[in-house]
Amino acid sequence: MNGFEKRANLIKEKIMQTTLDMLRTSEAKKIRIADISKMAKVSQVTIYNYFGSKEALLREVFKNYFDKAIRDFEDYMNEGHSLKEKIEHIIFLEKESYNDFPPALMKELLIEDNELSRYIEEQYKERTIPLTVRIIQEGKDSGEISDDVSIENVLTFIQLYMNQYETILEMANKSGDMDNFLEGMVHMFFYGVCGKR
């Protein structure tokens, strides 16, 4: 990579990070290219040259964020953690993504951008599901998941949790101690309401 390409990448990253920072405090509809330009200290023309439109910039920011989250988790998966640690890490990542991309913003972006929606669906099928199956299989191999429980059972249980994740995170937020609330949910995920025997 030559000096020009390095500078171009740094400018793109700066624009994308600025956009992500703005999304944490503002609705996507209210953010203008002029605002991003001012905050990133680059011209509007530069933003349009790199991304073409605000919609394309938002899509790129979200895709980049999603790709990084999966790469980071894949790295974590290869560090030899227990099943419980992996599940706790997933919940930690979900909590972090909730702060960066609240569910309402995610829905808004996915409804308004068919290309982004297709991309997320594709990533879910090609990367997220295989990673989840790997976690479950490793849990079964290590004896952390009962032989009486199939991979399909665990996937279904995880899906039930994920379908209600927005509600769970809102309740965790209202509890006043999100970390403790989520720790309790992890405990229930593994041991049910009766706890360890």
Can you walk through the features of this model?
This protein has 197 residues and is mostly helical. The protein has 2 domains: 52 residues, Arc Repressor Mutant, subunit A; 138 residues, Orthogonal Bundle (Tetracycline Repressor, domain 2). Helices cover 79% and strands 0% of the residues. The protein has 10 helices and no strands. Helix 1 packs across helix 2, helix 6 packs across helix 7 and helix 9 crosses helix 10. The longest helix is centred in the middle third of the chain and has 28 residues. It starts with a helix and ends in a 6-residue tail after the last helix. The mean pLDDT is 85.
Features:
single chain, 197 residues, mainly alpha, Arc Repressor Mutant, subunit A, Tetracycline Repressor, domain 2, 2 domains, elongated
